[in-house]
Design a protein that fits this description.
By secondary structure, the chain is mainly beta. The protein contains 5 helices and 35 strands. The strands form 9 sheets. Strands 2, 30, 31, 32, 33 and 34 form a 6-stranded antiparallel beta sheet that branches. It is globular, with a radius of gyration of 21 Å.
Length: 504
């Protein structure tokens, strides 16, 4: 079997540093614990890393990336979302590069370290809802009974690096230089415990915008915090029922909420202790646009074709129109492979089928339009994150092969949202990449004057490198490769933070 086939089928040998427990009876058949996905067990800090090529003088800041990385043997079948959060930081300053990798010290991880038995199970186990039933379902948050691992999102706000979970999870504050966990962040007690996976920082105002939701609540609690972390606005937004959203979008004056027809049945969750998520193709996708400091009666809901979106690229205003681009899944229904046994649902859900899409909403007339912008299977999409809410021309995506058995990124894709042209560059035979972030040049200039940064891992040697591309010509290949001190595990999301927000 050639290397490409082994990669696509997730049939890679385990690296030498994989923990022994990945081969016990319960976990030996789980591809998200083997090969490229084998847990990385050590925290590392290293300075003055070896570089092939030259680090650009106008590159000043840090590439941060999250990783689901279990520290201990999972007690149940392992879901990829259950791995303990491990944050990578690669720092660029004065032409030199340093590296750090540390676990997020979440409440569940601290319990594991201290040998405290937890009732908060992972995604593949039955949820323990006895306490939720006793207290009243509407009074509990998802992390009260779900393993909340803070392994998904990364966001800079008020000089603090914030991380959270793919669902509505607790927010943890990290030191952006050392990656030490500073503790839970509740913004002076104003946050009800959890926040959606991808809140947005508006770098023009310094505000952080996001929302809270829970499995048994038919509403969002929407928040705006100012640049200093003080609560500026809060509003309740009612919904037809409990929902499972992921992202939020902002423009200069508006916030955009998503109600996709892909959600769970709360009564079934109560009866069997598991989320059963179902696509409702007879229902429309609903997108709610509200003034940033608006109330429920100011939300304008627009209806579109049914589907589901994990990640939006960006949104902006053009006259009376709101324009929003993202990665659309027209049909998120899964196709289980019975041969995969109890892991079939988890593996099927991770085989994302999405493409670049555009939604348009007229705030004056109520008119809408929508269109597919490309047919390539892409996700994990980032513009220049400092331009969220402003019109952006470029974004950087990961190509996910449709035939892959697991979630892998084989190619870097740059989109021009004006010409609708794309550029694609392969990471190369035997290499897989990570979500790629745009690092703006300190010299300013055009929107794409800067660099695209990612972590790549070789599947024969398991060596990992940080690759740097000139954003204006990604097809030329990396202009520099940083040799990282150890193998890096796979990750969900990344971001770039300019140096002034880290060191001043």
């Amino acid at each position: 079997m050639d290397l490409r086939t082994r990669v696509l089928q997730s049939q890679m040998p385990d690296p030498d540093d994989a923990p022994a427990w990945v081969n016990d009876e319960l976990h030996v058949g789980n591809p998200y614990l083997h090969g490229f996905y084998a847990p990385v067990m050590t925290e590392i800090t290293a300075d003055d890393l070896e570089v092939e090529g030259t680090i650009p003088a106008d590159m000043y800041g840090a590439y941060y990336r999250q990783s689901p990385n279990p520290m201990f043997r999972p007690k149940f079948d392992h879901h990829f979302f259950d791995g303990d959060g491990m944050v990578y930081g690669i720092y660029f300053r004065d032409g030199k590069v340093s590296f750090s990798r540390k676990y997020v010290q979440t409440e569940v991880l601290k319990d594991d370290i201290n040998g405290v038995a937890s009732t908060r199970n992972g995604m593949m186990a039955e949820f323990d809802l006895r306490d939720a039933e006793a207290r009243g379902y509407e009074e509990v948050r998802n992390p009260d009974y779900v393993r909340d691992t803070a392994n998904t999102t990364l966001n800079i706000h008020n000089g603090k690096l914030l991380t959270g979970w793919y669902n509505a999870g607790s927010v943890y504050e990290l030191d952006p230089v050392t990656l030490d966990t500073k503790g839970l962040q509740d913004f002076g007690g104003s946050l009800r415990t959890t926040l959606n996976a991808h809140p947005k920082t508006d770098m023009r105002t310094g505000e952080l915008i996001g929302y809270d939701y829970a499995d048994f609540e038919s509403f969002y609690t929407y928040y705006v915090w100012d640049k200093n972390g003080a609560l500026k606005h809060v509003a309740r937004i009612d919904l037809p029922g409990p929902r499972l959203p992921h992202d939020i979008t902002i423009t200069e004056n508006y916030s955009i909420l998503h109600d996709w027809p892909f959600f769970h049945d709360p009564e079934m969750l109560k009866s069997i202790g598991r989320r059963v998520v179902t696509f409702k193709p007879d229902l429309p996708s609903r997108i709610g646009v509200m003034p940033r400091y608006g109330t429920q009666d100011q939300v304008k809901w627009f209806e579109f074709k049914p589907g589901y979106v994990l990640h939006m690229v960006n949104a902006w205003e053009e006259g009376d129109w709101i324009i929003m681009d993202g990665c659309m899944q027209p049909d998120p229904r899964i196709k289980r492979d019975p041969a995969e046994g109890p892991l079939a649902s988890m593996l099927a859900y991770m085989r994302v089928k999405s493409h670049l899409y555009r939604w348009r909403m007229n705030m004056r007339t109520g008119e809408t339009s929508e269109e597919s912008l490309d047919d390539l299977n892409v996700e994990f999409c980032l513009p220049d994150v400092d331009l969220y809410g402003q019109k952006t021309r470029y974004s950087y995506h990961q190509h996910i092969p449709l035939e892959a058995k697991t979630l892998i990124f084989t190619d870097l894709v740059k989109y021009d949202h004006e010409t609708l042209k794309r550029e694609v560059v392969s990471y190369g035979d035997g290499w897989l990449g990570s979500e790629s972030a745009f690092a703006r040049s300190t010299n300013g200039g055009a929107e794409d004057n800067g660099y695209v940064v990612t972590i790549c891992t070789n599947l024969e040697t398991y060596a990992s490198e940080c690759w740097i591309y000139a954003a204006q010509d990604i097809t030329a290949g990396p202009i520099a490769k940083v040799k990282l001190p150890s193998r890096c595990g796979p990750g969900f999301h990344a971001t770039w933070v300019q140096g002034e927000h880290i060191w001043g």
